[in-house]
DNA sequence: GATGAATGAGTATTCATTCAT
DNA sequence: TATGAATGAATACTCATTCAT
């Protein structure tokens, strides 16, 4: 799977063939099928590993001080997301690729997005009830759209190679995110 | 090209073959190469047509009253973008697909994005100089990130099929956009 | 198809590969698919040609004198069948082979047999009504079983290579056939 | 071997793989080769078992009264043959299949047929010497052809699934068989 | 004897592209 | 220009058999 992942990262899904994977793993061509039933299946496993890695890395940010502000927590989440994307960018690009023509594998990306957006929606609902954010903001649309903003920005910067500077990106993304929700400039509330 | 576009829309780039295009265009298989040098080239032409169509449709919104607010203008731009995406979604999906594995064709999408973001950046610079928006917002990052937000939201709703309601989407996207920039709730300034 | 038939005859269906067919036809491997959609399809065409040839050859026996006896007509049919089988034995063997594992192609053999047995049944019914044959003989079973006798004997002699002598075989087959039906030793009736 | 036989019966020779046999026998894949040297060999053993079973079942008909007629004995043999075929039809079908492409295994079927035909020939020679059957009938051809009739009829009914009714089939087969040999309608001679 | 991982030869099919007519 | 037959490279998957443990 290690060999496969490396090849997927460098050549993409379409240009990676089973023969190359076996070659790189230093086993016979047929041996591949002792471990995986198809090219699609091994990609699926790599992709699941990817989403697991992603969540682990994204969560692995320095803990916030107790009672940290909402803004600080959003910033931490954004930094975590960008950190994870930064480390996994090549595979994220391939997952994006595969999702455009393989419905079964698209589902992996879709469910990852789904759970992220759902968590965002739930959080925003709480914040809204507590009057912490702009009442005009619809949690569902906001979670989806702001999720798209962070997600796509990471892709544009880390996959497409648009110029950016990490800390500045985190800071601006957080500023836009908080402003969008109507979070007061400097708050000290915890959710 | 009409035949090709229809096929690309329904089957995607990978599953559309030159033979099918010729068949649909009612010419011989070989005749295809009288007009196009390769499958990549015809896709390139279709993609250029797509971006032209997109701009035309996006611009084809009812004109604003003279002296309309910035917010109104942003809303108009968002509505135009979503309208255009709505009408061209199938081809947009294919362009997205191809851009993931063909660098040459990725360039088409990249330059369309580039000019859109550049215009956004320029506008935000002007608004910033005039003190219309949050001084902490960096025009380059904001134009890029908010462009990503609108762009990706359209993809998620119109290509991936996530539930949404058109007018609500435009309104929320605009609200988040303006909030993000720190635009005062209701202004009557024109840029 | 000529190349394919020759290969099927010498190597059987399983050991004949598309590459060999193309090679023998002196065309590129891929050219095969310009003419046939699959190995199964080309076999199907060869098999249909075979059944056509078979019927043509089987019918191509010297005509009988007007008013020839039933026995003479049965002998002529048996001789025709054996003649056809003799000339087409290698392909008949392959058809038999394929029919054991490919239901679609088995249908070709089945329908050829079906029509032969049906004709036999109809003829025997007429003979029975006219009191020409043993009333205890059931036309359906007799046509099926005696058809099997002739059919399988041809296979055993011409495919499996069991020793036989052509004229003697025809004569004995006819004797057994007529005896089985209870046809009087020497009749001069026409049907 | 039990596992192998069950698989051969349901899936045929070609679609049965060594891995499946081992799986069904609840041993490791490689263990198969501790007991059998190849797929061909295990099939050979199953096929030998089959011919033994066949002879046992075919012989296991109610004994005839002492001094039973020739016709009664022929009917008993036909009934026994059809009974055996009925019980072993799936494996008989596979043996027929394999015999079409594997000369070594074809030999099993050939020798079973050979001994049956030889016995028939010997019997008919005796009957002929005693003037019990039509003198024009050649024992060799008759034993071969009538053996083919019974054998192929069984295949057509029990493997190919052509409609038939057991007792009627035995009766008609016997009638045709005896008629073919020119056996007088009702005799009381024993051979 | 038993295991099961490893082997690697074998093959039908697709399709963008070319070119003689 | 139009044709469409010909091309041939490219590739995932199967499976009987082997052998180190």
TrEMBL record, chains A, B, C, D:
UniProt keyword Transcription regulation, yes or no: yes
One Pfam family recorded for the sequence: TetR_N
Lineage, broadest ranks: unclassified sequences, metagenomes, ecological metagenomes
Domain HTH tetR-type: start-end pairs: 1-54
Molecular-function GO terms, alphabetical: DNA-binding transcription factor activity; transcription cis-regulatory region binding
Organism annotation: freshwater metagenome
SUPFAM superfamilies: Homeodomain-like, Tetracyclin repressor-like, C-terminal domain
Keyword field: DNA-binding, Transcription, Transcription regulation
Protein name: Unannotated protein
Keyword Transferase: no
């Amino acid at each position: 799977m290690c060999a496969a992942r490396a090849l997927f990262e460098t050549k993409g899904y379409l240009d990676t063939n089973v023969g190359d994977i076996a070659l790189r793993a230093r086993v016979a061509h047929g041996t591949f099928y002792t471990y995986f039933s198809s090219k699609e299946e091994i990609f699926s496993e790599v992709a699941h590993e990817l989403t697991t890695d992603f969540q682990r890395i994204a969560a692995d940010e320095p803990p916030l001080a107790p009672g940290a502000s909402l803004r600080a927590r959003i910033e931490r989440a954004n930094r975590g997301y960008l950190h994870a994307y930064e480390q996994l960018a090549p595979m994220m690009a391939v997952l994006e690729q595969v999702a455009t023509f393989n419905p079964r594998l698209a589902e992996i990306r879709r469910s990852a997005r789904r759970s992220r957006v759902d968590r965002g929606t739930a959080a925003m609902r709480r914040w809204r009830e507590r009057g912490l954010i702009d009442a005009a903001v619809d949690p569902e649309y906001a979670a989806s759209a702001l999720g798209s903003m962070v997600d796509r920005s990471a892709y544009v910067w880390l996959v497409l190679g648009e110029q950016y500077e990490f800390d500045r990106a985190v800071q601006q993304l957080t500023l836009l995110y908080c402003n969008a929700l109507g979070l007061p400039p400097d708050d000290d509330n915890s959710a």
